[in-house]
Design a protein that fits this description.
Length: about 190
């Protein structure tokens, strides 16, 4: 469901994207080409900053926002999800937040107030809070990193996880076309 926020912003969704009918996209949200938004996802840009403005939530091309994901921003702060990125089941991306290209955020993970570099893999049940990740970091399953954490103790992304991320993007791109056919949108 696409809907306006109280300030009158209405989502902008590319014709080639697929939004599941159970998902809620609200407010100043920009969804680019070939994005898949799965069942019960919520992408909501409706909180206003002190200056009365709302920065957009932008989901770049070929990304996928899977079942039950919540993307929301505090006080109108921007959220950017890069191209070919995957936000897996029941994850939370809370702004302010920047997620680079080719990033995988595993199920039940939470990211907040962070800049995640291109090619990062955040495995399931992890938290990244108020700390930035340079490109190609691998956050192991069930790991919490926040301000002051020694990131040098974490290895670069193993090749098998990058390959897995690419396969998830490919599978979800196929779902965009398949579901659009089912819903007669092509």
């Amino acid at each position: 469901m696409l809907r306006k926020n109280p300030t009158g912003h209405y989502p902008q969704v590319a014709q080639s994207a697929f939004i599941d009918p159970t998902a809620i996209i609200c407010g100043h949200v920009i969804i680019e080409d070939n994005v898949f938004v799965g069942p019960y996802a919520v992408i909501r840009a409706d909180e206003v900053a002190e200056n009365g403005e709302i920065e957009p939530i932008v989901i770049k091309c070929d990304s996928n926002i899977q079942d039950g994901v919540v993307i929301h921003s505090k006080e109108g702060a921007a959220i950017h999800v890069g191209a070919r990125s995957s936000i897996a089941h029941r994850s939370i991306v809370h702004g302010p937040c920047y997620v680079g290209d080719d990033v995988f955020i595993g199920f039940n993970s939470v990211v907040f107030n962070t800049h995640i570099g291109n090619g990062c893999v955040i495995r399931h049940n992890s938290v990244v809070d108020s700390i930035d990740l340079s490109p190609n970091f691998h956050i192991p399953p069930m790991t919490n990193v926040s301000a002051g954490f020694d990131l040098s103790s974490i290895a670069k992304v193993p090749p098998q996880y990058s390959e897995f991320s690419e396969s998830v993007v490919s599978a979800n791109n196929a779902l965009v076309e398949g579901y659009k056919k089912i819903f007669n949108e092509l």
